[in-house]
Amino acid sequence: TILFGDPAVPVSIDADQTGLAEGGYQTTLQFTNNISAPNTVEVPVLFVVQTNTIVPIQMGNFLTGSIAFNGETDQASFNATTGESVTFAITMFETPAGKLNPSLTIVDESGATVKQWLLKYSKGTPKRTWKFKTGGAFKLIIAGDKASTGDYTIQTSAKLPPAGKSFTKKNQHPKKNGL
């Protein structure tokens, strides 16, 4: 129960997907307030049915996939150490279904977003790099921004922090300090 003035509360809905084909389904959720002034709010939602497979990826390897429908995501798991810089180089392919405008999101073990990039379709291979402040297990989530679909290949590469080097507040930038 949410009373007047309470902060927004996330709503979790469990649904039986039996018999539904993979894809995105537009629908509307209806919320009714019966406690104070009765009113109803309709919220449009995209209900996505897909098999969630998380593919492990090692640095230096390629991840190839396809975003076939609005709301679909692909996921890859990887590990990073504190101070490690990981680069994601993404090649996008034009398909009859369209041109993918990929969204790349890094999330940590708790599911919190660490970094997100929204890219536009490009015939080149744009690269995005993130330096991890803490180490651990992470997921890379690939989706189509603005309902775009298409194929992609991502290559990962990593640069570890210099071994045995510690940085002081005065001397924090490795490139400026000859490392």
Summarize, please.
By secondary structure, this protein is mostly beta strands. 0% of the residues lie in helices and 47% in strands.
Could you describe the 3D structure shown?
The radius of gyration is 21 Å and the shape is globular. The chain has strands at 23-33, 39-49, 54-56, 62-67, 73-80, 85-93, 102-107, 113-118, 127-131, 136-144, 150-159. It contains no helices and 11 strands. By secondary structure, it is an all-beta fold. Strand 7 (102-107) and strand 8 (113-118) form a beta hairpin. The termini are far apart. The model is unreliable at 165-179 (pLDDT under 50). The strands form 3 sheets. It has a 5-stranded mixed beta sheet with strand order 3-5-10-7-8, with no helix packed on it. Strands 4-11-6-9 form a 4-stranded antiparallel beta sheet, with no helix packed on it.
Structural class: mainly beta
Shape, principal axes of CA atoms: globular
Mean pLDDT: 80
Helix-strand pattern: EEEEEEEEEEE
Question: Number of helix segments?
Answer: 0
Based on CA atoms alone, the radius of gyration comes out at 21 Å
Estimate the strand proportion.
over 45%
Strand order of the largest sheet: 3-5-10-7-8
Helix content, binned percent: under 10%
For the largest beta-sheet, the strand count, sense and barrel status come to: 5 strands, mixed
- Total beta strands: 11
For the termini, the CA-CA separation is 57 Å
Low-confidence runs (pLDDT<50, min 5 residues)? 165-179
Which helices and strands appear, and what pairs or packs with what?
Layout lengths: L22 E11 L5 E11 L4 E3 L5 E6 L5 E8 L4 E9 L8 E6 L5 E6 L8 E5 L4 E9 L5 E10 L20
Parallel strand pairs: 3-5
Antiparallel strand pairs: 1-2, 4-11, 5-10, 6-9, 6-11, 7-8, 7-10
